[in-house]
Amino acid sequence: MPDIAYEQARHGSSIGQPLTRRDGILKVTGAATYAADNRPEGLLHAVMAVSRIARGRVTHLDVAAAKGHPGVVAVMTGANAPKLAQDPDAKDNPFMFRLDLLQSDQVRYAHQPIAVVIAETLEAATEGAELLAPRYAVEPARIGLDVEAPQEPEAVGAGDKTRASRGDVEAGLAEAERRIETVYETAAQYHNPLEPHAVVAQWDGDRLIVDTPSQALATAQMRLAALFGLDPKNVLVRSPFLGGGFGSKGFLFGPQVLGVMAAKLVGRPVKLVLRREQMFGPVGHRAETRQTLRLGTDASGALTALDHHTLTATSSFDDFYEPASALSRYLYAAPAVSTGHSGVRVDTGTPLFMRAPGEASGSVALEGAIDEMAEACGLDPLDFRLKNYAEAEPISGRPFSSKALRECYAQGAARFGWDKRAKAPRSMRDSAGRLVGYGVGTALFPALMMQAEARAEIRADGTGTVALGAHDMGQGAWTALAQIAADGLGIDLDRLDFQSGRSDLPNAGIAGGSAHTATAGSAIHSATSAVLAQLAELATGDERSPLYGAGNAGVFARGGRLLRRDDEGRGESFADILARAGRASVSAEGKAAPDPASREAYAMHAHGAVFAEVSVDPDFGQIRVTRLVGAFAAGRIVNPRLVTSQYYGGMIWGVSFALHETAVLDPRSGRVMNANLGEYHVPVNADVPAIEAILVEEHDPHVNPLGIKGVGEIGITGTAGAIANAVYHATGIRVRKTPITLDRLLG
Amino acid sequence: MSFSLTLTVNGETRAIDLDDPRVTILDLLRERLHLTGSKKGCDRGQCGACTVLVNGRRVNSCLALAVSLDGADVLTIEGLARGDALHPVQAAFIDHDGFQCGFCTPGQIMSAVGLIREGQAGDDPERVREGMSGNLCRCGAYIGITQAVLEAQARLASEQGEAA
Amino acid sequence: MNRFDYVRAGSVAEAVAAAAEPGAAYLAAGTNLLDLMKGGITRPTRLVDVTHLPGLDRIEALPGGGHRVGALVRNSDLAYDAEFARAYPAVAEALLSGASAQLRNAATLAGNLMQRTRCPYFYDPASACNKRDPGAGCDARGGETRLHAVLGWSERCIATHPSDLCVPLVALDAVVEIAGKAGTREVALEAFHRLPGDAPERETVLEPGEMIVSLRLPQDAAAFAGHSRYLKIRDRTSYAFAVVSASAALRLEGGRIGAARLALGGVALKPWRARAAEAVLAGAEPGEASFRAAADAALAEARPSGDNAFKIELARRLIVRTLTLAAAGTPERMLALPASAFADGSALHA
Lengths: 747, 164, 350
Prior knowledge:
The complex is a heterotrimer of chains A (747), B (164) and C (350).
Chain A: H1 3-9, H2 24-28, E1 44-50, E2 56-60, H3 63-68, E3 72-76, E4 106-107, E5 113-119, H4 122-131, E6 135-138, E7 155-156, E8 160-161, E9 164-166, H5 169-174, E10 178-186, E11 198-204, E12 207-211, H6 217-228, E13 235-238, H7 254-266, E14 270-273, E15 289-297, E16 303-315, E17 337-346, H8 359-376, H9 381-387, H10 405-416, E18 435-446, E19 452-459, E20 464-467, H11 477-489, E21 496-499, H12 516-540, E22 555-558, E23 561-564, E24 571-573, H13 574-581, E25 585-592, H14 596-601, E26 605-616, E27 623-633, H15 640-660, E28 691-695, H16 716-731, E29 737-738
Parallel strand pairs in A: 1-14, 10-29, 12-13, 16-17, 20-21, 27-28
Antiparallel strand pairs in A: 1-5, 2-4, 2-6, 3-5, 7-8, 9-17, 10-15, 11-12, 11-14, 15-16, 18-26, 19-20, 19-25, 22-23, 23-24, 26-27
Helix pairs in contact in A: 8-9, 8-16, 11-12, 15-16
Chain B: E1 3-9, E2 12-18, H1 25-32, E3 51-54, E4 57-60, E5 73-75, H2 88-95, H3 105-118, H4 125-131, H5 142-163
Parallel strand pairs in B: 1-5
Antiparallel strand pairs in B: 1-2, 3-4, 3-5
Helix pairs in contact in B: 2-5
Chain C: E1 5-8, H1 12-19, E2 24-27, H2 33-38, E3 46-49, E4 59-61, E5 67-70, H3 75-79, H4 82-87, H5 89-97, H6 101-106, H7 109-114, H8 166-171, E6 175-180, E7 183-188, H9 189-192, E8 211-217, E9 228-234, E10 242-253, E11 256-265, E12 272-273, H10 275-281, H11 288-298, H12 310-328
Helix pairs in contact in C: 10-11, 11-12
Organism (chain B): Methylorubrum zatmanii
InterPro entries (chain B): 2Fe-2S-bd, 2Fe-2S-bd_dom_sf, 2Fe-2S_ferredoxin-like_sf, 2Fe-2S_ferredoxin-type, 2Fe2S_fd_BS, Aldehyde_Oxdr_Iron-Sulfur, Beta-grasp_dom_sf
Keywords (chain B): Iron, Metal-binding, Oxidoreductase
């Protein structure tokens, strides 16, 4: 019954409206407050000193020189750092990552924090950190995927299976009419939100207030409480706005904790902001991968086998393996599919979730391999994808809860003009003589659900409140969740007090996995439904109400009134109901969690198709993505304006993945040699001339009560592969290593 | 050693005693004048988040020493709107969803205001894209940014035309 | 950033005197200097602020032809000066292809000449670098060298000079006017920057305390205005340093090349004047054959300094294209994407 969820939620008119951002005025006037904008009384500035070696020991710090610099208040090293209640190297669960909090003189990666200088001014703290002039006992850095024999990890990504398979891949390959084996390599990338990680920490006895950008307020609160031995109730984390997160603010990292330690050490509020180069090390990254794909097809071009193996790297001291092969479990139909991962340990910071972790890296390899196979079969790349369209999830065999991928292909291809693609590579040119290429990639991202709580209230004056510690990192939670809240309560948005972004509100879970709107929205839906149920009970059980006898299921809310479903002309305002009941307000809490039964029964993913046009200078190999069209089906769209922006952003990350981003490590030192935004390239405005996103209609009755799938990460998948395939189509040169730089096309 | 300088910030002339010549205009604005709208994304002139207008021209405020700008007129994001009335560039950024996280936005908007004043881009989207390429947006709001600049440019041009 | 004395100079003489102290550095816009100071790459003990000096921000037409550009003229003011851009279109194009609009609004002419290399090992205080620390060695050798020099490098240094502006300027025989304690002197821009040799720490011919006051474009430089281009290969469409760049300027006379000027950027520790190529072009018929011969001549001595052999072939192809575009004529209006292979006026074949 697909309509039930919609019916329940369709109280008002907010959901589905392309509202502009509710925080828009704050953001365009400079009034939105990010962590580093906070200035409690008596604030001191802290700057980290970080290691310039990747492995070894710190043997000396010139603490006296730093302390002697005018304005320096204290130097925090392992010798005087406040004692912690929890070992920073403790790992109680896979989602707890080891932190570098000056617990030893060991250096395990470049840019590891080794001391903190606290001063009256930022200038003094900065120079104090410089004056520490560390000396080291250096050990050779272990860098690169060939550094040691790979091991198979116990799990990849967020507790995903390392291996999954169905059928006999070797037999499938043996019986295949055509076979290819191909190897793709992706570069290490660093999240680099424009807002560096920052913390403003204030202690008041055993109470702690921390302003820091967080994609997981409750997790941060709990970790701080554990590290400092505090009652979680005494820890308040505030993060009304994040200057981008992309996964790097999903966990509290060492530098943020160091800011809190520094404040404790000096007994005054402290602000610590990472310098841009310090973003390349202690706050996570996307590890490099080398992916080997083997594909076989029968004479018709139907896949007989697909094998996808990923080699990646984690740090020497913690575990996170980029789950790049996982995508092959979900996307293309084949009787035999095998996926696996292996890893090596290197002297870098621990890699972590970065926008579409696994899917992004896996997609560029899988879509490249599919393109190669299509060509080997003499088939149009889009036709080949349709030929191998999965009607059920390939490995699990489960039906999809919904899948409008065919419509995505069709609408995207039509809009893009895919039919104008010449079959042969290097056969299209623009009027100026530049090579032109068209490429396609399939986009997919799992439709996840996590856990969240929310609180809702309706007051006698007809206004309402919805509160939860949700996170707006740019996806638009202040707007989209408020739309869900307003509709849930049946009031207009301007009657709603929407509270968010603090850890002392109900735990809204994590803004990650493209699941925040679905999860927090479902919690809101649950809370608002409970409030309305209370109101309905007050009304329908009271003879004086026009709603008397309608039953809870017989009423719905709109415009601050409860109305009879069978007769919208009969209703009563919230204010009247509460007044007669002598109540100032009604409130309720709600929860959201994945529904195990439906998750067991169905495979749940958002899908899309991305079409890319590139222009390549035939002599120089310089590439420009002249056009991108993405068509995505992601269930119900809460706010098409914001969702379109999410798709644009994801697709631009795809451009970045395909053509720009790479952390250049010197293998001898283990240092990132381009740890700055001048040379760690992400696209600039001129790199992105034309993008279109098509919102393909899709109804999903199973994913969650609101029918929402995530939109934050899917855009990067499909896109990078589409661009790489378009570069091949333009040039006839298949570059199996991203980023595709011009030197790889000089031929 | 103390340095006395005069700056006009968002129309207000201020006498500033600076105890340290190392202070950049960005850090002066953020840490000493408590105008935190201008953002520090890289502190090295590579991201554009700190863009302000100095004597009417857009510059990276992280790469200018405050002492050296004695006598300058500085316009920041906080000084752009007239009371409650947003500047056309600000309004257009909202309408075209020219931002997501908002961190680069003050710099983008000041850069756009500077670009329009420079008068070199006009209504040519390609010139706008090139002219705005000193402002990174990691969220990838470039499409909306370009549309917003074009619309604001047109609106300002027509207002100017009417005034003339 | 270390503490320093801040000295605001009231005159050139005062500036020169103040900057003669060891450890002193001139401060103009500071777009490169502050970057280096923040990175701990340079730690000057005194900054001599010359931005308030009168008269150095002017662009003047010289009576006998040519122009003088003051040391403090901002990049964008120079690029958008209509008369200057008409006379030296490749200079304007190079200026507008450099950095970002914000940096161009701040950066000065003299600062552009004085900017330091972007070699990541120079920028990494933990790496050995003969520029920063003479005799320390060069960690770029055997390191990440994709963008390093292919011409004029030495075992001691394989860095490149990052300027766009200097490339057409050196092609047009620009002259640097320098003030020092002993008065003023002139140096051809071509001789201003030094190749690394045994002393990569000495980047220019400036003596301690000497200061650039202006730059002069000679009388015959504008004769190339009709056939001048700057082209820059980049890893991004905009806001990126050159992988390789080229400036070509031609004087066409009766279907032949009367005179040719050619210079390369991103290939050496100085803007690279390709005189051998100019000799090949002089008197030749413009066209692919002569352009290819010129490209071969320009790169005859090139050799990779690491993982950058591609730059040699890339530079050859770039020379051919830039000459082709220059021969076709300077675009009437500044292109939307200056110096870009993707600019409308940069079609591959006329």
